[in-house]
Design goal:
Layout: H1 4-26, H2 34-50, H3 66-112
Length: 113
């Protein structure tokens, strides 16, 4: 179950990704930084996937309060949801870059004729 914040961030990331892919493909002169931003976005999302858990699994004693367990489970669920969003956006980025490459190859082939 995604939290409200995660639900809000997914469409925003998708829009940013689609816009960057579009301008890097069709307006590279006007938006030269778009390719760099795509690279940075990919790196940040990859770090999210490879990152270690921010929650500590160690406890001071053998007994944990229900509230503490609930917070740990919530943190783990949030981290898992963030990784799912990161994986989805990385997949979209990969497919978008592949599509961009085929468009640019097609344009280059037409210019040679």
């Amino acid at each position: 179950v995604a939290t409200k914040k995660e639900e809000d961030s997914r469409p925003l990331l998708e829009t940013i990704l689609n816009d960057l892919l579009s301008v890097s493909t069709f307006a590279p002169v006007e938006w030269p930084v778009a390719t760099s931003l795509l690279s940075v976005l990919g790196c940040v999302l990859t770090q999210q996937l490879n990152g270690t858990s921010s929650s500590s699994s160690s406890s001071k004693g053998s007994t944990l309060s229900t509230d503490s367990l609930s917070q740990q489970n919530s943190a783990k669920a949030t981290e898992q949801n963030i990784r799912i969003v990161a994986m989805d956006i990385i997949t979209m980025l990969s497919l978008g870059l592949k599509h961009r490459e085929s468009i640019l190859d097609s344009i280059a082939a037409k210019q040679r004729i």
